[in-house]
Design brief:
Elements (H helix, E strand, L loop, with lengths): L3 E9 L2 E10 L7 E5 L10 H7 L4 E5 L18 H15 L4 E6 L1 H10 L6 E7 L4 E2 L1 H8 L7 E2 L2 H11 L8 H9 L2 E3 L5 E3 L6 H6 L6 E2 L1 H5 L5 E4 L9 H6 L9
Parallel strand pairs: 3-4, 3-5, 5-6, 6-12
Antiparallel strand pairs: 1-2, 2-4, 7-11, 8-10, 9-10
Helix pairs in contact: 2-3, 5-6
Length: 255
């Protein structure tokens, strides 16, 4: 694998913070693909995809603030889509390009939707992976059971078992894939224990805004005009099949 790691300085209501990202492919390639991860994940989730696409694109995989190698916000109230969109605009400015293509998984798809819906958006093509304009209450309840719990493990194998448990909906991964997913998700502390590479306070605004009903984002989806591809896992609870089918009939009429 050949990639480089960088950071860009961003700003929010609580001050400056650094956002880390990995970069693949030729830096002078004007075709840029940005890949953005889910709620508790990080940009290394896209290593295999980024390597495969690096011959076609300059591929950028950011760690959304509070995750991976990125900094943490002083005020956890800032952990939300508006801040994430602002950070991505700063990142695109750093890349010095006028337009990008976007692959977003789960939360990364929501960030992409919000940015794509803006007037004069730099997004020219959008891939929504397992997320859409209606977030089901079932998926919110599942996520709430683990996000922000800040577990620690005495060994790597204990961490591996936990990642397999909470990420079971990722599908039938190989043992090597599970280990890689875990290696890029956790960090070892000075005391030898392992923990996740994200700020557990990202859960505070999520749980504060938690509602016992679906979240309707159809107005945002309806404002998207760029070509859109919607991908759904057959057993997904985050993107219901009916919602996925409706995405082909509304807004950008996704494929």
């Amino acid at each position: 694998m050949q990639f480089t790691q960088h950071t860009v300085q961003c700003i929010g209501p609580s001050g400056l913070h650094r956002m880390a990202y990995t970069e693949w492919g030729a830096r002078d390639n004007p075709r840029v693909l940005i890949c953005v991860h889910g709620l508790t994940r990080n940009g290394r989730d896209f290593d295999a995809l980024a390597e495969a696409m690096s011959g076609h694109y300059r591929v950028i995989c950011p760690d959304v603030v509070g995750r991976g190698q990125s900094g943490r916000l002083r005020d956890p109230a800032g952990y939300g889509i508006p801040q994430y969109v602002a950070d991505m605009v700063t990142l695109i400015a750093r890349l010095n390009v006028d337009s990008v293509h976007w692959v977003g998984t789960s939360m990364g798809g929501l960030i992409g939707m919000a940015l794509a819906a803006q007037e004069c958006t730099p997004l020219r093509k959008l891939v929504l992976n397992d997320v859409g304009p209606l977030i089901t209450v079932e998926s919110l309840q599942r996520i709430a059971t683990y996000v922000g719990t800040d577990p620690h493990w005495a060994s790597f194998d204990q961490a591996l078992a936990y990642v397999k448990l909470i990420s079971a909906t990722f599908g039938p991964l190989s043992e090597a894939q599970w280990r890689y997913l875990t290696e890029t998700s956790i960090i070892q502390g000075a005391d030898g224990s392992w923990s996740f590479r994200y700020d557990p306070r990202i859960a505070e605004p999520f749980k504060a805004a938690f509602v016992d009903q679906d979240i309707d984002l159809w107005p945002i989806y309806g404002a998207i005009a760029c070509p859109t591809l919607a991908i759904r896992g057959a057993e997904s609870d985050l993107l219901a099949r009916d919602t996925w089918l409706a995405m082909a009939e509304r807004g950008p009429r996704a494929k």
